[in-house]
Amino acid sequence: MTDAFAFVATELLTVDVLLAIFFGSFVGMLIGALPGLGAVLAMVLMLPLTFTMDPMAGILLLLATYQGAEYGGSISAVVLGIPGTPAALVTVFDGAAMAREGNPGKALGYSLVASTVGGLVSGLLLLGLSVPIVQFALLLGDPEFFLIALIGLLAVGSLSSEDVVKSFIAVVLGLMAGTVGLDTITGEARFTLGRAELMEGLGLVALMAGMFGVAELLSLVSKKASGQAYVTSRKGLRTSLTWREIRSVGRSITLGSGIGSLVGVIPGMGAGPSSWFAYSAAKKWSKSPQTFGKGNPDGIAAPEAANNATVGGAMIPLLSLGIPGSPSVAIIMGAFIIHGLQPGPGLFEAEPTLVYGIIYGFLLTSVAMFIVGKLLTTGFARILTVSNAYLIPLVMVSIIVGTFASRYLFFDLWIALAAGVVTALAVKLRYSVAAFILAFILGPIAEVSLRRTLVLSDGSFSVFLTRPLSLALVILIAVILALIAYSVIRRATKPRAEVDVMTTV
Amino acid sequence: MLAKTVDALGCLVLIGLGAWYYSTATQFQDVGDGSTPSAGYYPKILAVALILLAVVALAMVLKRPAPPPLVDSQRVKLAGTVVLTVLFVALWQATGLFYPAVALYVFGSLLLYQASYSPKALLTGVVFAAATAASVYVVFEVLLQIRL
Predict the structure, then answer these.
(1) Which among A95, A214, A391, A486 would be 20 to 30 A from A42, CA to CA?
(2) Do A38 and A388 meet the contact criterion of CB atoms below 8 Å apart?
(3) Can you tell me whether residue A182 is helix, strand or coil?
(4) Residue B31: beta bridge partners?
């Protein structure tokens, strides 16, 4: 324990790191509060700032942004009744209802406390589980890494969109995009169309900026409110709660934190589903479920704890296995890669100070979010009056500059713009963007592991059945495939209207 | 109906992409005695998977009722945003002059979104465009040392 405090004091309590954490919390909350601009866009905008930073400060900046945006989403959910982020959609039900009763500050207070506790709980889980998982991961060879990547891809494909076939098409397209560039085993150029810019592969920053930044802005433009200013009352926004009020939602916060942390670990799920699960569980176990949707504090606390707890949960597979579970975490992985670092078990041995700095620093990001939220929530509510007419060009310029700064290539800007336009159309046609980007990142891991495995086994696939751990993973894959098939058949045989209701909820 | 046509065309494009990807992947030679998978081994698996999935998706698209319209409102603003952004990047690339390009882009975007051409709106646009260019200069060039 003493060592941990000494570590935090020497590595984390520095001006650079603290500035990064507080700045990230501020920007994340600000962008999260603006309807339509979610955590991913906030992180895309912050990514270029990390290029020139120390890796630890840069990654904590992104984590603080992520945490801040998840809380920020609840500000507009409560004040305007419009969720700032998809994960805050559930918070609208009871948050906006409580605000209409004249208590927006209380609603935001519940949200802030729950978000902070959710973040801290998942941070402790990250601290406790990462090392055992890494020790387990060190026992794994190429066959197991290939199978784990395959499990991640199957989970992402089956969970990230209501149209499973199109979701898997997105997975395959992401894997194909990941093959562009020099082959890491033979050194041959693949699918580069003779362009020198593609030798190192498609730029991760350009793809992210286009698919999550440009596409998001195009979606915002296509909404009718693009030229309007949001109008809100800023009265009664003090976020103070009594100890008794906090204790009254203790069970929901615990429930939300647990659900959020667990859901975060599963690739493809993310903060949106976790807040829905937590809300449903809190309502189910409540003594007064009939008051949900009418300003029940538990209806705010459970989903808000869950969406912040998802952040820490999602970091567990990234840090311990090198597998990102959501687009936001993929951006954090991008920051690692930009700094020449590969997340995974090897990083714990090669860069222990950095890894533990990130884990302990994650706990600090929750504390910083609480402080910034306490001080500035009223101010963020004021920002909601900014017109999208000013906001959209400003954000677009930031995305373009950030993309250019990653490699100083105009080629990347064209990739980002093309990816943005195609993504905006693909989302309308129900293709999954999250599935594409996660497959793009997991693709090289899967390919190299598969080919190395086949080299070692002289081309025989039986190696996947003769190693005990591989066999266990193969059985798990068979179970997942069976569940996917069952789900597809059930959807196909149910009446259309019923399926639509299920997928909307 | 347009959305359904675009959806079906998208599936056909994917099938074409899969075919091109497969044919490119076949050009990579096996390594050594053939036990080491070539650089085209994994892409060929992906190409086959894409073609199969796209065929299934096409069948589903043709069977299902038409999806909602792709763009239900703000078509001019949407197209205008894409055109302005492309012009901005093209102007910057052609001239190397980032700050004039960014100011013109922001000014044009404001006019597009606000759809107001009164002297006050034009003046606000000019001031906002200049302020944006100045802010980008301070944040990226001065503070972050990123040359634009």
Answers:
(1) A95
(2) no
(3) strand
(4) B36
Tokens of A398: 């930031």
Measured N-to-C along each axis, helices A327-338 and A55-79 cross at an angle, to the nearest 10 degrees, of: 160
pLDDT of the residue at A410: 95
Q: Enumerate residues 6+ apart whose C-beta is below 8 A from A112.
A: A71, A239, A370, A373, A374, A377
Cβ of A401 within 8 Å of Cβ of B148? The answer is: yes
Q: How far apart are CA A457 and CA A237, in angstroms?
A: 64
Question: From the candidates B4, B22, B89, which should be mutated to test the interface with A, based on the most A CB atoms within 10 A?
Answer: B89
| Interatomic CA distance for residues A241 and A243, integer angstroms | 7
Q: Please report residues of B whose CB lies closer than 8 A to that of A390.
A: 110, 128
- Alpha-carbon gap, residue A445 to A448, rounded angstroms: 6
Q: Which ipTM value was assigned to this complex?
A: 0.92
Grouping H, G, I as helix, E, B as strand and the rest as coil, residue B135 is helix
* 3-class DSSP string for A359-384: HHHHHHHHHHHHHHHHHHHHHHHHHC
pLDDT bin (cut points 50, 70, 90) of residue A501 is very low
* DSSP 8-state class, residue A461: T
User: Which residues have C-beta within 8 Å of that of residue A281, sequence separation ≥ 6?
Assistant: A255, A259, A302
Domain ranges of chain B: 2-63, 75-143
What HEC string does B104-116 produce? HHHHHHHHHHHCC
Domain boundaries, position A158: 2-504
**What domain count does chain A have?**
1
Cβ within 8 Å, pair B132-A459: no
> Tens digits of per-residue pLDDT, A185-223?
888 899 999 899 899 889 888 888 898 889 988 988 887
Q: Nearest CA to A193 among A415, A433, A504?
A: A415
- Cα dihedral A69/A316/A170/A42 (nearest 10): 20
Cβ A249 vs Cβ A110: under 8 Å: yes
**Residue A367 burial by Cβ neighbours in a 10 Å radius (0-12, 13-18, 19+):** middle
